[in-house]
Request: fold
Amino acid sequence: MAALEVGALRNVGFLGEGGNGKTSLVEACLFTAGSTDRQGKVDQGNTILDGEPEEINRNSSITAAVSFADWNKHHLNLLDTPGYSNFIAETVACIRAMDNSVIVLNSHDDPKVTTEKVFSWAGEEKIPRFIFVNHMDHEQADYLGALQKAESLLGTRVAALQLPIGGGEDFRGVVDLVLGKAFTYKTDESGKGSEEDIPAELADTYEEMRGKLIEFAAEADEALLEKYLEGEELTSDEFVGGLKQGILEGSFLPALCGCGVKNIGIDALLDALVKYGASPDVRSFVSASAGEDNEIAVEADPDAPFRALVFKTVVDSFAGKLNIFRVMSGSISADSSVLNPNKDEKERLGALVYIQGKNQQPVSGNLVPGDIAAVAKLKVTETGDTLCDEKVSEKFNSIQYPTPVISYAIAPKSKGDEEKLSTALKRMQDEDPVLTTGRDTQTNELLLSGLGVLHIEVAIDRIKRKYNVEVEMRTPRVPYRETIKGKTKVQGRYKKQTGGKGQFGDTWLEIEPLSRGDGFEFIDKIVGGVIPKTYIPAVKKGIVEAMETGALAGYPVTDLKVTLFDGSYHNVDSSEMAFKIAGSMGFKKGVAGCKPTLLEPIMNMEITVSDDYMGDIIGDMNSRRGRVMGMDPAPGGKQTIRAQVPMSEVLNYAPSLRSMTQDRGDFSMEFSHYEEVPGQMAEKVISEAVAAKEEE
Reply:
């Protein structure tokens, strides 16, 4: 494929709810444009976009797919994004590479929260947004109703560029309100439309909707508005120019309709993207010099220094890592040296390829601003990194991914697979930066965190399929702790005289509670050498080790002070080991007699929802033993509820919040402090811990 002028490029992302037919729509675009020789079907598992077995089995996209098509002397890079909240992070990354977005709506269902989110994200990036109402062949299809609902939900005016001809099984074409022509399509899914007269039953609606569309066009430009108000008719060029200006400025949303699966109206969608869409030179990006805070506007200038953003990474267990990037400025060819300012490392770009779903095509010439391509086998580059000319040393703002909201403890089923699992997780994180891992220092569990249960399950399925590691998944253990409420003085005495050299250590300890959160304090009050100073560190070491297993349920002990105030030793039989054991014995005996009690971790939570859900959220917090600490206004007319809640009550809070708010709520949480567990609940936790130990 020869290099094109920047103005002839269109980078288009398809956004919206899962199940609205984004993948089918892009497959239809590729087929209509001649990029593929057949139109893949999601339900048949033969699309070129959904290449992962997990996608094929679920009939839904879980990763973003990159493809391209040539249409009317323009080159379109098409980004098919996941629509389910568990996999929305890939959508966030792809938005950074788009210059246009198509919000795909369902003709017979209300737009939901994902539509609201992606619409907002695209708006924040100042990306022109088109609406495409899909599934117009459904028996309950309602094009104008869908536009009204979208207008209400999104809070932006919608301008219909088309009207549907027929509905349900009778859907067969569209009326172009700009051209004033009707187009009907064959039933063979060829995507070839035939021009015909506007149906008589649509004549009145056509006149009304075209009049509104002319108003939209006129309002986009003061000169056009003045001409329109004076009763003069806009020329065809003025009409189109006004519409394009309004679309690029985001003053209204242009709407089209069709059916991706049956390939109806797809050529009109491609025409609209070419005619009204933004080329890369319309949009500018912001970068900063490495190590500096000053922002620099980056324009799509082919003669400027090379800059690119890596927005997606694919890892193949055999072929290795493939970094997909968008060129922001300058040009680049294969076998070039560039700088990764995020890592402060030079990289060598070997062969460059265009991505066509599951396939690749070599880049023969230079890439220009707006081009999307991929390169393999970079040493340190990851998703979100910048690649640039060594003389520039600038990096783009990092991609702001959603924060993981749920964690599961994972472990390999086979004890010998720990290293293989570690390698697999690292490669999984290369592809999906939202997946995070960490080891809980208290429970020693390896935790895998993501955006939902399905997100974690898919990751585990991939680990098994791609890296041959079977993984067990379970709810994480709550890192309870134990402490004391009482005070005591106790002797820890260890004496062994059988077989060889004897062992002797004798300690007197005073054990008392500290304030919550103070941890552990050891006081040496030995006088007169009753215990030699060389043995005192051993006493402390024995106590510290004994603190790892409390008297109630075996949880670590905290928030206490131990004072070593007396003891005795033997000139021959005493040793560091003997005093270590003596200190441990005394501590365990003393803690058991100091009114031990169970502590649980308390989390600080912030839950952001609209006013409609406030009552439900507060009620739910109360049922989880939470305390609402206050409320603060949040952007978008929402409220942020601040609460403190026991960790045990919110381990699986994410699906509950989605259910209560129709997936419109967000939350974050972090550890705050420990508090005593209420009596009956403490008894339950202790009995479960004892039972688990007996089973081991």
Summary: DSSP finds 16 helices and 35 strands in the chain. Residues 8-277 form a domain with the Rossmann fold fold (CATH 3.40.50.300). The chain has a mean pLDDT of 92. The chain has five domains: 8-277, 285-396, 406-474, 481-594, 599-683.
